[in-house]
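Subject: sequence -> structure tokens, single chain

Hey, anyone have a minute? Need the predicted structure for the following. Not urgent.
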Amino acid sequence: MEDPEQDIASVIFGLTTVASPDLQRETVETYMTKDVAFEHPVCSVQSGPNSREKVLKVYQWYRILSPQLDLKVEHVVFDTKRDIMYVEIVQWFKLFFLPAKPLPARLVTRLELQKIRGLYYISRQDDFYHTTEFARLVTPPIGPLVAFLLWLGGIVSYALALAAQVAFGVWQPTADLVNGSGRGGEGGNYPGDHDELYETPATSPDDRKDG
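Reply:
Had a minute. Here:
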């Protein structure tokens, strides 16, 4: 790649949504180093002599599992000092044996680039999914259930932390002990509050006249 920030979207499409296995192979061999490493929640390819061929097989299996695939590159950040790129992607991946309609699943891909004779090549790829997004990717019907369980986990964490603080005084901020709340007493505001962002502006005719 001459300009990774501009070129990476077409490279990703060549790896994932391209219609021909020949074009997919060409993309892997053109833009990845021979010893490329690959990490994903369900598979891993360690860097080694011609590990690129193993990564190609991973991408081929990816397309075999989902013949109908759609993908959108939403955001790209390129750290030119470290030659590391972060790409935010949304994909619609449908396992061929599941009748369920695919749901959009978001991931962040971290790419380590290697510059050789003025061109950039992918030397390592790491794919990161949130738990809910990965559930939506693999088995769309259980996506809402996973989201609910995570929400429930947040509620349980809040309740258990409060119980431990009240019952045993464990990990309790000083402000809570002095004032009986986390607000730091009357009139206490924190930099992250920004209450004006949450106030609904007046919309009555009288208010508009006063303005």
